[in-house]
Specification:
Blueprint lengths: L1 H22 L11 H13 L2
Helix pairs in contact: 1-2
GO molecular function, one term: protein dimerization activity
GO biological process, one term: developmental process
Protein name: Transcription factor basic-helix-loop-helix protein
Amino acid sequence: ENAARERSRVRNLRQAFQSLQAALASVPPDTKLSKLDVLVLGTNYIAHL
């Protein structure tokens, strides 16, 4: 049960990062970014809104 919950949590987190990266207009869709890069770019994007 704990392992299944952890897999679900990791899957949801991965999807959230993919969604955030897809929302970044300055990044081509096929670009591989680290989670940190996605967070930094997302933060910068929001700050410039």
